[in-house]
Write a structure and sequence with these properties.
The protein is of the alpha+beta class. 30% of the residues lie in helices and 32% in strands. The strands form 2 sheets. The chain has a 6-stranded antiparallel sheet with strand order 2-1-11-10-7-8, with no helix packed on it. A 5-stranded mixed sheet has the order 4-3-5-6-9, with no helix packed on it. A hairpin with a 2-residue loop joins strand 7 and strand 8. The longest helix is centred in the first third of the chain and has 44 residues, at 2-45.
Length: 148
């Protein structure tokens, strides 16, 4: 009796293993598809990115994704965190205004320059602008609208 049960199990073990592998593959594929959908949704809703040209090693060379409204600073409560002592806890706000222009506004008495000119209160930004936030230098790349 024991031998017959063992031989029956051995006859169908391969089918069971194939089923387990296929079920695992389908589960992984569904999970990756959902993650990809989330990432693509974020990429579609972004207005551009800041490329870090100079600054701390942990962000040097990174592209910091910009959404419709972004606070930049050193605090963990901001949208884009830059861990440099020259950056205030809430340094500035980068956002798209009602006219569709990308703007930057000071949040404190922070040191901000755009293409070498000191920022007084707020300014309209253009693609290719060099923005210096404390000791961190970034270059702005604005995503072109799909309608254009």
């Amino acid at each position: 009796m024991m031998f017959e049960a063992f031989s029956l199990a051995m006859r169908y073990w391969f089918v069971v293993v194939i089923f387990i592998v296929l079920a695992g593959s389908v589960g992984i594929s569904i999970r990756e598809y959902r993650q990809k959908s989330v990432v693509l949704g974020i990429a579609r809703s972004s207005i551009g990115y800041l490329n870090v040209v100079s600054g701390p090693d942990d962000v040097l060379g990174e592209n910091l994704q910009l959404m419709e409204e972004n606070t930049i600073g050193r605090s963990r409560r901001v949208d884009i965190m830059l861990g440099d002592r020259s950056i205030d806890k809430v340094h500035c706000l980068v956002h798209r205004d009602e006219n569709g222009d990308v703007c930057i506004s000071r949040m404190t008495d922070a040191d901000i320059t755009i293409n070498g000119a000191k920022l007084e209160e707020s300014a309209i930004l253009f693609s290719g602008d060099m923005i210096c936030l404390g000791n961190v230098v970034t270059q702005l790349h604005i995503k072109e609208d799909e309608e254009e």
